[in-house]
Amino acid sequence: MGDKNFKVKNLSVSFSDDNGKIIAVDDVSFKLEKGKIFGVIGESGCGKSTLGLSIMRLLPDKISKIEQGEILFNGKDLAKFKETELEDLRGDEIAMIFQEPMTSLNPLFKIGRQIGEPLKIHKHLRGKHLKEKVIELLNKVQIPNPEKVYGLYPHNLSGGMRQRVMIAMALSCEPEILIADEPTTALDVTIQAQILFLIKKLNRDVKTSIIFITHDLSIVAEICDEVIVMYGGRIVEQSDIYELFDNPKHPYTRGLLESQPGKGEYGKPLSSIKGMVPSFSNMPIGCSFSTRCCEKFYERCSNEKPKLLNIGDKHKVACWLYDKEEGNIE
Question: Is the pLDDT of residue 20 over 90?
């Protein structure tokens, strides 16, 4: 597959409406290593899905704008690509599994046609060869009786089966990069485990690099190599997966880990992070987590945005608690 690489550098994305402009992704940078699974985690409303859609350039131009930064794929900046160039790239070299398969699949077209479309456009397959490849993909994502499913509509399938179809579509052209936006959210635990196993297997077999967006820490622990924790559109912590769970630094990360059901004591209430994620139109001036943080020291946390600091090998945190520790500002 050649020397493929992917980097996001200082990416900021805004949305505009009648009430003005908000920054939904704020100065985000990370590197996706070949064949790795990179986790993006945070509560609903933290900007993680916006980040995924920004990378794919799928946000509507009328209300959104890339304010700054680069999305570098093999040295080319996707932020500067024209729509025709993006159409050549999407589904072929970079693909996405969307959050809700029922709304992402077209209810009017049969499964075979929908999975086959990227293969027709990018691989120029037709007729018998196209159908054979689609059935092979349905087999790969472990859909029983693929010849029958080929001729069915999305509403004929369960949620888990529809999600497998979405994975088959995304992987049809064996992309270099797969963005999975909460692909297991609407599924029960058994189906969720099967989908995660499938994604890990495809990552291992095809060497596809994956950006895995989720709010579920247990999923991150199971499949990711490295992770960024997002809050208020910014990265608040970044590390490899073992370091994040063994040595979490940011108060928000610690709060997320402590609020997991397995951490609670029998008969006692679960730990929780007080308050709610602020809206992007009402984000604090300083640290975005300052309104909910029990470790803040008022002046600085409320008035200054913390920089992302290097505090260890591949471990970064954006928190004033670590400003005096050794490490370079990123």
Answer: no
